[in-house]
Each structure stands twice: as C-alpha cells, then as structure tokens.
Amino acid sequence: MKSALYVVGDKAQHMFVAVQPFIDFEKRLKDKDELERNITRRCTSIDLQKIEKRYYFYKTLEEKKEILEQTKYEINNLYEMVIKETNSDINKINQLKLHKHVVTEELKSLKEYLYSLEENVMISILGLPNDIHELTPEEDQIIHEFMEKPSHRSESHMKIGLNIIKLVENWGCYLRSDASLFELAISNYFQRSLIRSDFIQFQNADFTRSVVVEGCGTDVVNNKEVVTIYEPNTKNEVVEELSRLHLTGSASMYAFMAYFAKNLVYRSQFPLKYFCYGRSYKGLRSNKNLFDLTQESALNVFVASVDDVWVHFKHLTDDIIQIYNNLGYHYRLVYLQPSKLNKSESLRLSIQMFSNHQQEYVEVGNLSLYDTYISERLLFSCLGKEQIFPKLIGVIS
Amino acid sequence: MLSTLKINKCLLKTGTYLRNLHSRLNDFDIEYFCNSQNLKEIEENINRRKGIGDINLVYKLYNKYISSTSEEIKSELESKLISELWKLPNRTHPLVLERNESKLMKYIGEKKTFLHKPLHCQEIVKRLNLVRSDQLGNFSGSKSYYVLGEFANLDRALVQYAVRGLLDNNFDLISVPDIIPRSLVENCGLITAGTRNQIFFLNSNLHQGDMCLSGTAEMALAGMYQNHIFEKKELPIKLAAVSRCYRAETSNLAEERGLYRVHEFTKVEMFLIVTPEQSDTYLEYVRDIQEKIFTPLDLHMQILDMPPHELGAPAYRKYDIEAWLPGRGIYGEISSCSNCTDYQSRRLGIKYREENGEVKFVHTLNGTAAAIPRLLIALTETGQTEKGVIQIPKVLQKYMLGQESIKKQSRIPQLKLMKNKK
C-alpha cells in the first residue's frame, strides 16, 4: 500500500512532505450505514469494518504512545531533580535510569510500529469515496435533452474524416484543415461564452506532482494511466516513486489544485469562478480514433464556494445548456449512477452526444461536484478563525 | 544447372542490391560527405558551427565499408557510418559561413520613450497580479507558472491573432500531438543522449515506446510526413500549428528570470516543405510573414542573420527576431526562422517526385509566428504606462472583447501559504 498523499515515518525522512491531508474519519463514521451504502452503490470492494477496526486499534496505540511520552517526560523531570540533590540515593537513581530506559525503548518500538499502522490506516481512509449527493440516481437519469436523437446510422468519424484526421503509427493523431479549424473555433466560442458569464481565464501549468494527482482522487503510484515524466536526478528511491512529475495538462482539476493546494484564501474572495483552455493528457492510449486519445484539447472550469455550492452547480448547468443549445446538435444531460462516479465525485452531470455510427451516447464533457473532498485532501482552505474547506466543482468540456 | 558458388554469388549480389535499395545510407548525401575533396570544407564547417561530428572518421569508415567484402562486417560498418553521418551538422549558407557574429538586417519600429523608468516584466506582473510562479515547485514542478485573468486573455489573443495571420496567408492549420517518439526528435536534429539536454522523456518503466515531449510543433509536423513522397506540383506545403512546447532546459541568468525561459509554453509555429530551388526564397517569405505579424504589435525589433555557431545542427541559415525589452534594457529573442534544407528530410525520408519521375529530398523550413511568453514579456515592458497599467496593441483588442488595457487583477486572490503543522 503506497501513497504519495500520506507520507509518514522513514519515508518522510527521505522526501519533503508537501501536504498532510485533513482526515476526519470519525465524522464519516457518524453515519456509518450511509457510508456502507455508498460503498455498495459504487460497487467498490472496500471493507469498511476492517478499516474501522484498524482505525480504533491505531487510536488505542496512539493513546498509549501519549501516555508513554508523558511518563517519559515525568521520569526525566524526576531524574533531573534527584541527581541535583546533594545526598541523592544511588539506588533511586539507578532505578529511575532503568525505568527511563524501559520507557524509552518501549516508546521507540511502539513508534516504529505506529508509523506503519498509521500509514496503512490513513491510506485506507483516503481510499474511501466521497459522499454521494442526494441527486445521484440509482440508475442514469436524463435531466435535459435538446433536439431529437438522430435516427439514421452513419459511417464512423474516422471514415468520414479520412482527409482531416491523420493517424501516424500508434502515437500521433493529427487534426487537419477543417477539423483543426473546428477545434480552434469551438475553443474560442467556449472561451468567449465563459468570459461573458463572468468566469476568469487562467493559463495553468501542465505538470503536476504525484501528491496533487492523488489528492484529486486518482491513484498515482505506478499508475500507467497517468503520464509520468522521467527525472534523471531524483534524490532517492522514495522520491522517485512517491513524488513524480506528471503531465496532466493545464485544462484539468489537477492543474487548478496544484495552484490552490496548501493555500488559504480570504472568505470575502469566494466564490472563485475560473477556467482554462488547454491540454488534457491521459495515459498512452491507442490513438486509433478520437474517442481514445492520449491528448485532448479541453476546457476546464473550476468553481470554489464556501456557501451554497448547489447554486453554482445549477448556474453551470444552465450555462452548459445555453452553450450547447447554440451548437444546434442533439445532446442530453444525464446524472450518472454511483457506479460510474469517480472516487472524488459526489455527483456527475454527464454531457452526452449521440454517435450515429456506434448508436450510443458518448460523453463529451461533464460537470462534477466534489464538495470538500478534494480541498480537504490538499488543504485548500478559507482564511479565518475556523478551518473551512471550500466546496469545489469541476467542468470538463 | 547453377553451381553452389554461382548461387552464393548471386545471393550475395541480390543481398547487396536489396541493402543498397533500402539502406538508410542512401538517405545521406554520400557523394558530398564521403568525397575526399570536400573533407577540408566539411571540417571547417563543423568547426565554424561549433558542431559535433568527425568527418575524417566518416571518410575512414566509408572507405572501409566500400572495400569490405564480408556481408557481416559491411553491415556493422554501415551502422557505424550512419551513426557518424547522423552527427554531422547541415551545410552553411555561403553568405553566412565566414561570419563570426550575427549581422543586423534591419530595425522595425522605434524604441518607445518613457517618462518613468520602465519596469522589468517580473515586477509589473507581480504588481498587477498577472502571473504566479512562487511556491509551486512541490505541486506543479520547478519553474512552473500560471498566467492569470486578463493576462491569460492576452495570451489567448496572441494565439488567435497569429493563427489568423497565418490562415490569411493560406497556411494549413494542423492540430499536433505533444507526445512523440524519441527517434522523431533525433531525426529533426536534436541530440537526446546525456542528462543535460532539452528533452523531457516519459518514464520508461511505466510507458512503452521511448516517447518524449515535443519541444516545438515543428517536430510533430515533420513527423506527419515522414517517409512520404510528394508530387512536385503539391509543393510548397505551408503548415501551421498551435502547440504546447516542453523544454527541460533551465537558466539561472538574471535577465532570463520569470517568463523568459520556462519549461512549458504555447507557440504558434510555421513549417514549410518546399523544393530545393524554393527554399532560399521561402526563408525570406517566412521572415516577411513574421514581420507582418509582429510589426502591428508596436514593438521595436531587430532582425539578425545568425552566424554559423548559432545555427544548431539542422539550420542552413537562420534569422532571429529580437524585441527591445525596455525594462531589461536589452534585446531579447522573440522569434526565429530557419531553412533546414534537406537535413531533416533526409533523416525523415520526406521526398518529392520531379516531373521527369526523379525522386529527390524536399527542403524544410520553420519559423515561429508567436512564442507566447516572450511576446507577453515584450508587450508588457513596451506597453507599460506611468499609471501602472499595460496598454494592449490595437490589433489584439478585438480578440479581447475590445479591452484596451490590463489593470491589477484584484478578483484573483493573493494566496497565503499554510504553515506546516508540527
């Protein structure tokens, strides 16, 4: 079990720990039944009982550690006092010395054990999915449709676009003439629409470190689905494995979270409504058609709110409807069932268009509600007396 | 009936014929590089360009290769010879060869005068909250940066403006991949061996295929046509691409701090495929297009004809366009264009067929239509006003919903880094 997000013990000696995620497992256990249902509805195989048992065992040992530390402190004080006395009792000194030694040794071995236990427990807790939003349906639910679903069957886009899509071996997909002009035009259209809706443009970094990727809910250690860069001069094996550099793309939640991770923002500045047009990179794909590409041009919207995030989710849904209606093609908006959500998503509105060739709907974008799941993991919080984590929404289009 | 000896001889001949037919050796200009009369000239060219490659070794290997009768040894020598030929730089334009420094071709625009002491771009973007580049190393890698708000709008406006300029000149816009094979990078003339190079590689334990990140769209554009034969009437091919460029190089020079030398940036690139007769003319054509794009941006610029040691391995001739950066008080490169003649086409197998059926190697050229961070620096330092805002050139305003200047981005919060808990 390895994590780039939760690093303790000897591993922490070998690398800089950028973030220590906020974890409140007991709060989640308050509604344990709901969490159990969540796990079942998402069709994941997490053994909550086991995690809970281990967690309380860890807590017991933590308490024991604290008692030992307190005991050690008091013995030390006593020892200092005794040796300062002029007529100190040598037997008493030796007894205290022995006591000190026993406590120190016990504390040392307990700490060593605790590190691996803590790592195991906390990584398991971080593996738990986000809460499921009340609007997430048991089965996919269409909430909006525009125009009629086309009834005819067509050739595949690769055949139709023979002269405007060029594939080179298994690595290169090129868009030519009208296809690349379309890419440019549609990005300009989305960009203009968002600026008019008062969103602020960012040009993000394309690289992210492992901690951010895992913080956003994507398993990153040795995951081939995330593009990982070779770094020749890494300090040691721990850094090499747990603090890698990834090419995730500027138009991604990762890029926005790399910006806000471990940062505080004044409450008065919320809501934050940003977007970035750029690249989105996945692991190396087949690149045989436009549905399976390593690289895509994408537009990512990022919203952070400390108040009612649902208002923003609704506004964004309206914006999406407005933007897509103007394109004049059939599409539908669907709330996805729990088994189709990512670990970090609480609710996902899938923007789907119909493939006349495949005779099925294909997701062309989505609107995801993360609530405080990601901001807690990456310590993006609101500056104030209390620690408030902003609720986040991400849109990919 | 043929004797065994005759059959063996026959097979040997056929093998040699087939190898010659398909050998990559034929892709190099053997007649020139392996001719003893040219050795001095080639050696001088390598020295003047401060390039790598050993022409005497090439000549030695070639002689061994042609005199060898053993198939096995011949094949081994051939690989060595190709590897040595590959290292040699391109030839150099005769007008440039003797020069030790760049030649000023012309100035464009006037140096702007300021009533105040013009500030360095870094200072302006910090004051106006236009770029964040601090405290990002642990989250998005070293030297990363984020362009914010209206400055990001200017970034996009530059892309749209440059692309418009190229489309108006009948360039074909191509959307290119950013992750490409190492071999393509090498065939475009970049050395990828060693740790101190400009290329980001993918982690080979996790990703197959020896892939790396493209440093410029020129590589992907060239790769699109590798092993392709054009008909002469199809040329010239004029391609344009907007891509994200990744470069592993870093700099600790004070004048290159901030956005000047970064690991990732957006660039609008031109790539042309022409006949050998056309390439000199098309270099001037590319330069002319660059002038047309940059002149309305109200920058003061100089165009330089670069000396041999500044050409890199692939270029036969190269022009640099440098903009005056008032905050720094220096000229900084914002663009360049190169004629690579047949250097890349020979390595990538890009050819054309003459009307008489003869197949020859094409010539390739490349030029930058907009390297965004450098242009942002030049526009910021030139467009700064005493009031502390940045004026946007008129030609870009229509891509920014009519906006005329950039002010402080107060809607983007100043961040406060959380302290580590003990």
TrEMBL record, chain A:
InterPro entries: aa-tRNA-synth_II/BPL/LPL, Ser-tRNA-ligase_type_1. SUPFAM superfamilies: Class II aaRS and biotin synthetases. This is Seryl-tRNA synthetase. It comes from Cryptolaemus montrouzieri.
UniProtKB/TrEMBL annotation, chain B:
Residues 154-393 form the Aminoacyl-transfer RNA synthetases class-II family profile domain. Gene3D superfamilies: Bira Bifunctional Protein, Domain 2. The keyword ATP-binding applies. One of its GO terms (molecular function) is ATP binding. L-serine binds at T216, R247, E269, N366. NCBIfam families: serS. PANTHER family: SERYL-TRNA SYNTHETASE. Belongs to the class-II aminoacyl-tRNA synthetase family. Type-1 seryl-tRNA synthetase subfamily. This is serine--tRNA ligase. It comes from Cryptolaemus montrouzieri.
